[in-house]
Write a structure and sequence with these properties.
The structure is a single chain. The radius of gyration is 20 Å and the shape is globular. Helix 2 crosses helix 10 and helix 4 runs parallel beside helix 12. The strands form two sheets. It has a six-stranded mixed beta sheet with strand order 2-1-3-10-4-11, sandwiched between helices. A five-stranded mixed beta sheet has the order 7-6-8-5-9, sandwiched between helices. It folds into two domains: about 200 residues, D-Maltodextrin-Binding Protein, domain 2, CATH 3.40.190.150; about 120 residues, D-Maltodextrin-Binding Protein, domain 2, CATH 3.40.190.10. About 45% of the residues lie in helices and about 20% in strands. The protein is α/β, with parallel strands linked by helices.
């Protein structure tokens, strides 16, 4: 409890200072490099997206956008640093469905996933990809599920940590197929996929940004993409409907957040820079190659992200709590 009070006191002081100095700071913003905190290790899917978007935002802001990776606790450590940062626009956070929705139902956090942040804008969304080690004796999803059932309780799955997309999707897979899967948590999905490539685990639930290259190189196998349509960047991977797991749709989204109290003028500048980045043909091409989909233009505003986050919480929290998913 004392830690919580200290956290809130520091946050309230920073917010008050931001209100008093906001207009002046916003006029000259940015006058130095901006730090984008990616709350997952380098090499993972969120990191890949963050670096592409950061590069695209630099042109509009006229200053470098430097990516800082802070992994651990399903993204909550890096996200906490964003919440604690001075609300002056020089620290922005790349959040997703884990950090700003699922973690609120799974972890005992020192911050509120809604109240301690200002929304900047939605970026991209991606489906999950069911992948297995290259030596797995299955070549399609039906064979994969049959193998899971034959080895129920013995199968090892690498995840990005408790409560991550890779972890939560496994709960739904177990429920829909009736199998039991042992989880091996890693500090991010990047290390989990590396373990899969090394044969240390049997399967994982990957995201396009960090599995498509390995699938194309045949170092891992892809069985299905968890969406209604195939990926533009990987049209050979069937959808779950086509592969025999009807309606198993799972997705992850990414968006930008800043500390509570950040001046609206600065948020508008950050939003405009993000929108401009996503409109750049080269940036879009790189994101599409990583399996990303784009939101409609009318959903690019800070207000649209705030409403979207609330809908996600209303839909996902009851499912997570009913499954009994808790941090270890």
């Amino acid at each position: 409890m004392p830690t919580r009070r200290v956290f809130l006191s520091a946050f309230n002081l920073a917010a008050i200072l931001a209100v008093l100095t906001g207009p002046l700071a916003a006029k000259d913003y940015p006058s130095r490099p901006v730090t984008m905190i990616v709350p997952f290790p380098a090499g993972g899917p969120t990191d890949a997206i963050g670096r592409v978007v950061a590069q695209g935002m630099q042109a509009s802001l006229g200053r470098p956008v430097v990516v800082e990776n802070i992994g651990g606790a399903a993204g909550s450590l890096g996200t906490e640093k964003v919440a604690l940062a001075t609300p002056d626009g020089y620290t922005i956070g790349l959040g997703n469905s884990v950090t700003h929705v699922l973690n609120g139902a799974i972890y005992s956090l020192k911050y509120d996933v809604v109240k301690d942040f200002e929304t900047v804008g939605l970026l991209v969304a991606e489906p999950a990809v069911l992948v297995g080690r290259a030596t797995l004796p299955a070549n399609n999803l039906r064979e994969f599920i049959s193998w899971l059932k034959d080895n129920s309780g013995k199968v090892l799955a690498g995840t990005g940590g408790t409560g991550t997309v890779s972890d939560v999707v496994l709960y739904f897979l177990e429920k829909q197929t009736g199998v039991s899967i042992q989880r091996v948590p890693y500090r991010g999905l990047g290390p989990a996929i590396q373990a899969l490539m090394a044969g240390e685990v049997d399967l994982s639930v990957g995201l396009p940004a960090n599995v498509l290259g390995q699938v194309q190189a045949s170092t891992i196998k892809a069985f299905a993409v968890t969406s209604k349509t195939r990926l533009v960047g990987a049209p050979n991977i069937p959808t779950v409907d086509e592969a025999g797991l009807q309606g198993f749709y799972q997705s992850n989204w990414h968006a930008l957040f800043v500390p509570k109290g950040t001046p609206k003028e600065i948020i508008q500048k950050l939003n405009a820079a993000a929108v401009a980045a996503l409109a750049d043909p080269q940036i879009r091409e790189r994101l599409v190659a990583d399996g990303q989909d784009f939101f409609p233009s009318e959903e690019s505003t800070p207000e649209a992200l705030a409403a979207f986050q609330q809908r996600e919480i209303a839909q996902r929290w009851p499912i997570v709590k009913a499954a009994g998913i808790k941090s270890e």
